[in-house]
Specification:
This protein is an alpha/beta fold. It has 2 domains: 82 residues, 434 Repressor (Amino-terminal Domain); 187 residues, Endonuclease, Chain A (2-Layer Sandwich), CATH 3.30.870. Helix content is 47%, strand content 13%. The strands form 2 sheets. A 6-stranded mixed beta sheet has the order 5-4-3-6-7-8, sandwiched between helices. The chain has a two-stranded antiparallel ribbon with strand order 1-2. A hairpin with a 6-residue loop joins strand 6 and strand 7. The longest helix has 17 residues. It starts with a strand and ends with a helix.
Length: 284
């Protein structure tokens, strides 16, 4: 029948695709369920992302829906990838981190375009180990858990250095480079690292002015993941948890927020000139 996976992006993505395929076929969940020997409520839980169906479940469903071969191949590729359910296990996710973090790792691995908005700090994917450790050290986490999270955070950068990486756009509030997190030595290394990462072809870093008129970026940070065949996903991280948004209305709102934030950005070259200026002051 499937694996329980409430709210996680892979399950929500597959569910959204299956829902669209079923609606396109003109069949209801009650029409489909008896033909594959399941309750219609199970189909509903697949479509909502509460349960991740196996590839065999999906194949049986697609047989009933009779969709064209090209769409079937795409859906089955997504379903077969979803059979790797280790990251959905209850309790601690892989690497001893939360399921929210496991979902972020999955999105970073499979997305084609990622937009980070971070008004107050350098985003985790571009942090140095000392900068990340300075942030985690203010939490109630144990030293071993902090080390695990720092190691994981450093490994996330590898995704953007592979042969065919996602396109990464990082929008950072201007005050983040003035924050002084960790003290001058840590901040110097962080700004050097930010400057170096911005030179990678797949990564664009832009600073955002946070003065003048209000824009949606003042509400807080978020990440927008865009895929190929899969629906767009938004992730919002809180102090000790995170949430994924997949509803069309939410996605539209956050895409509009990105457009509004972009009205206040410095160009990539101007942004790095500003970083270099702050770095020069710290080095003086």
């Amino acid at each position: 029948m499937g694996v329980s996976s409430p709210g996680l992006p892979r399950a929500r993505t597959l569910g959204a695709v299956l829902r669209q395929a079923r609606k396109s076929s003109g069949l209801s969940m009650r029409d489909v369920a008896p033909q594959i020997g399941l309750a219609h409520s199970t189909i509903g839980r697949w479509e909502s992302g509460d349960i991740l169906p196996t590839a065999a479940d999906v194949a049986a469903l697609l047989d009933v829906l009779k969709i064209d071969q090209a769409d079937r191949d795409k859906i089955m590729a997504l379903a077969q990838d979803s059979d790797n359910t280790a990251w959905l296990a209850s309790g601690p996710a892989p690497y001893g981190v939360s399921q929210s973090m496991a979902g972020m790792l999955e999105c970073e691995r499979t997305a084609q375009h990622i937009t980070y908005w971070s008004p107050l700090v350098i985003p985790g994917v571009l942090q140095t180990s000392d900068y990340a450790r300075s942030i985690f050290s203010q939490s109630t986490l144990s030293p071993s858990k902090i080390q695990t999270l720092v190691t994981l955070r450093m490994g996330r950068r590898d995704v953007f250095m592979r042969a065919d990486p996602a396109e990464l756009v990082v929008l950072i509030g201007e005050q983040a480079i003035h924050s002084g997190i960790g003290g001058p030595p840590v901040m110097r290394d962080q700004l050097r690292h930010l400057h170096a990462m911005s030179k990678l072809d797949a990564i664009t870093v832009q600073l955002v002015r946070m003065t003048g008129e209000w824009h949606p970026g003042f509400v807080g940070p978020f990440v927008l993941y865009k895929f190929g065949f899969q629906p767009t996903v938004v992730h919002i991280e809180h102090l000790q948890s995170g949430v994924f948004l997949v509803d069309d209305e939410d996605i539209t709102a956050y895409e509009s927020a990105v457009d509004a934030i972009r009205q206040c950005v410095m160009g990539p070259e101007e942004s790095m000139d500003h970083v270099a200026s702050v770095l020069a002051t710290l080095e003086a």
